[in-house]
Amino acid sequence: MKNKLHLLVLVFVMNAFVTKTFAQELYKAPSNQIKTIWVSPENPTGAKGSAGKTNKGAKGRAFITLEAGEKINLLDATGAGIVRRMWLSGTIPRSADQMQHVRIEMYWDGSKTPAVSAPIGDFFGLGLGKSKAYKNALFSNPEGRSFNFIIPMPFRTAAKIVLINESSSHALIWYDINYTSEKVPDDAMYFHAYWHHVAKTTLGMDFEILPTVNGKGRFIGTNISVVSDSMLRDTWFGEGEVKVYLDGDNKLPSLSGTGTEDYIGTGWGQGEYQDQFQGSLISDDKKGEYCFYRYHVPDPIYFQSECKVTIQQ
């Protein structure tokens, strides 16, 4: 079936993979080397003893302005550490144009190629430019006007998070990024996200959710946004099976589901619902618009040498 499709795929890739959970022992004392750092408009560098200086500490710089065509580093850290949380609010979650045309990029350890490069809306699971309140284990938009992200993202020598305003208007941005400065375990992986958009898919050809990636790692999951062809609104697009090709699989995959809505934990059609690791944020049969996600946190998909993920059409 021909569809307009946006998708974002989350992957950890490196020379090894991490099997520890996100949970931390809340009662455990920190080591002498670990430091907590927040960057925000009130302390853009996260420097010690430097927050809230503007207006004598009375909320003098709560947000920044990002002009159309401008880009800015939200985080520019050196040394080793782990990004723990990111929060962002302002005009972006309220503007379809900005959700689709303000881009977020992330760079690890001085790389010139971004590990993440995607529109803000797609990164947070709302690729159609429509904000909606939701909450899951990794992302949230609590009241439809702010975005949160809590996947830990390690770096060894440097981390940079950039916003690029490719929209037609200036953006007002409230943000904070929270990270810990600390030695990173040898088996810690780098976070990557693959974003892809096509105006028309090809009928009968499996669509690549994730093109082949090489190395050892973990496929965390994906969020997908679909606009179905107007001529096909009376039909159901979601019978396609998700297939995962692992470590040398050729014609046939090792892992295969039984249908699109089955993959995201429901069945017999697809309404709107939210769960920790799977959900359907938008499901509008009249307009043919759908946004849905699946995150493989309790059911990890590991690969030793390569991974590719497709969906039937």
Detail the topology: elements first, then pairings.
Blueprint lengths: L2 E12 L20 E5 L24 E3 L4 E8 L2 E10 L5 H6 E7 L7 E4 H4 L10 E2 L3 E3 L4 E4 L3 E3 L2 E8 L5 E11 L8 E9 L8 E8 L1 E13 L13 E5 L8 E2 L3 H4 L9 E2 L3 E7 L4 E7 L5 E3 L2 E6 L2
Antiparallel strand pairs: 1-14, 1-16, 2-13, 3-13, 4-12, 5-10, 5-11, 5-13, 6-7, 6-12, 8-9, 9-10, 15-23, 16-21, 16-22, 17-18, 17-23, 19-20, 20-21
Walkthrough of the structure:
With 313 residues, this protein is mainly beta. It is 4% helix and 45% strand. The chain has helices spanning 96-101, 120-123, 260-263; strands at residues 3-14, 35-39, 64-66, 71-78, 81-90, 102-108, 116-119, 134-135, 139-141, 146-149, 153-155, 158-165, 171-181, 190-198, 207-214, 216-228, 242-246, 255-256, 273-274, 278-284, 289-295, 301-303, 306-311. A hairpin with an 8-residue loop joins β17 (242-246) and β18. The radius of gyration is 20 Å and the shape is globular. The termini are close together. 36% of the residues are buried. Residues 14-21 have low confidence and may be disordered.
